[in-house]
Design a protein that fits this description.
alpha+beta, four-stranded antiparallel beta sheet, 22 strands, globular
Length: 455
């Protein structure tokens, strides 16, 4: 595995007025590795590690002095924070500048796995918004779903589709994020293996893939909707040249984003249309290499109509979830093979439309399995910020929390205050999952597929 940066890349960057070769190389050869996390505002809890200082462009983002063992932290598994690279948190600033944090929108994160940017969107957009997080690769879509389950909100749909599927939803989304698969040069510090994979041929291949994805998904953007296009590449072909291609081909307008000079984020402009882009360099900003551009759809665009969509009466109503979720009247249910999902009532017809044209991995939050007149609660419900506060729970110490996350048998004496039945296991006031108290024993219902294998 090579740690020598590709000479062809260095030569290309030499044409950039913001590029400092010595500083760039020094940043890549430094031993210190940056770690940053983004706090889930819906799950406040005292963390087990100290926060260093805030990421300046993201109010919930923080750098850490050193990287802890996240796998052993119950609060990581509870979704109290997300480990995310700081540069990509600039998305938070963009959402605030565009005013998308104060009105209901329908948003699509087209290439969403593993979920850093889509959970950020979910946290930063208005709570009345609907987010579709899509991933084409099957195993990555599973990870995406798991991360949104941890995040805990019901206004998210996770889908597993090729971008071409979104052509069937013309003008459906007010916000479209395409964090495009790229040549990855911006991640050389974080992932040294990516150095060996980089080549000028790989850049060309990525450009073709990026254009294919964008051409297939852009039809789903509404009139006056915003496209956020980003990469973790330094290559002009994947960044500014792509902005020019988007403006020329799809009648988009570039949108400038004000940036604090102290952040050292470099505003660039594309050659042909002077479209604005924002570059992050590791020798200038405290983060990895990143590029993002904001474009707006101008002119009148065709729009998907929800008028033909009708509500379906479900075998399980929100009233049946009383005692399990807070304010059940705010939600609607969807039942599939006895599995009950719930999501905000305002998005009922939108979710219905998504069901008809997409393959969905998950819609809203799974409450559990309905057996006659009884709900067997799902792990997703234990992770949900909408779970009823009055549900039985026991708050445990760190060692017990870790045993629970390993799916080990817990001492029944810990649950002496609980009568028989379902009970949440909490740590620092945040739910980790379910146990069922059965007199002389306690059954651990933590899911096998996400349990901690080794301490």
């Amino acid at each position: 595995m090579s740690t020598i940066l590709p000479n062809a890349l260095i030569q290309r960057l030499g044409n950039d007025p913001f590029f400092d070769k010595e500083g760039f190389l020094a940043a890549h050869h430094a031993d210190d590795k940056l770690t940053s996390v983004r706090i889930n505002p819906e799950k406040p809890s005292p963390l087990l590690f100290p926060l260093d200082h805030q990421v300046p462009w993201c109010p919930t983002g923080y750098y850490l002095e050193e990287r802890p063992a996240f796998t052993l932290d119950p609060l990581f598994h509870a979704g109290c924070y997300y480990v995310q690279e700081a540069s990509s948190m600039f998305l938070s600033h963009i959402i605030a500048v565009l005013g998308l944090d104060s009105k209901a929108v329908r948003a699509l994160d087209c290439c969403a796995a593993p979920g850093g940017k889509s959970t950020l969107l979910n946290a930063r957009l208005s709570k009345d918004s609907l987010l579709v997080a899509n991933e084409i690769i099957k195993n990555r879509a599973i990870v995406l779903k798991e991360n949104h389950v941890r995040w805990g909100t019901a206004n998210v749909v996770v889908s597993h589709n090729d971008p071409s599927a979104f052509k069937r939803l013309p003008g459906f989304f007010d916000l479209l994020l395409v964090d495009a698969p790229c040549s990855g040069s911006g991640m050389f510090r974080k992932d040294e293996q990516s150095i060996d994979k980089w080549s000028e041929a790989a850049v060309k291949l990525c450009v073709e893939r990026q254009q294919r994805i964008l051409s297939q998904v852009l039809e789903s953007l509404a009139s006056d909707g915003y496209l956020l296009y980003s990469t973790c590449s330094y290559s002009q072909e994947e960044n500014e040249d792509m902005v020019d291609w988007l403006i020329s081909t799809y009648n988009l307008e570039s949108v400038p984003i004000p940036v604090d000079a102290e952040w050292n984020i470099k505003e660039t402009q594309s050659v042909k249309h002077q479209g604005y882009g924002y570059r992050f360099y590791p020798h200038l900003t405290k983060g990895e290499g990143f590029f993002i551009s904001v474009l707006r759809a101008s002119g009148t665009r065709s729009s998907f109509s929800l008028k033909k969509m009708k509500s379906d009466k479900q075998a399980v109503s929100p009233k049946d979830l009383k005692g399990w979720i807070e304010e059940p009247q705010r939600f609607v249910t969807l039942v599939h093979h006895q599995v009950v999902h719930f999501f905000p009532e305002a998005h009922e017809l939108s979710v219905k439309a998504l069901q008809q044209v997409l393959y969905l991995k998950n819609a809203g939050t799974i409450a559990g399995k309905w057996l006659g007149k009884e709900l067997v609660p799902a792990h997703d419900l234990a992770m949900s910020v909408h779970a009823e506060d009055a549900l039985p729970f026991v708050d445990v110490e760190l060692d017990v929390a870790r045993e629970f996350l390993r799916k080990k048998m817990l001492d029944v004496s810990l649950f002496s205050s609980i009568k028989k039945g379902w009970c949440m296991v909490k740590f620092n006031g945040v739910s980790l999952g379910w146990v069922k108290v059965l007199g002389q024993r306690v059954n651990n219902y933590y899911p096998n597929d996400v349990r901690i294998a080794h301490l």
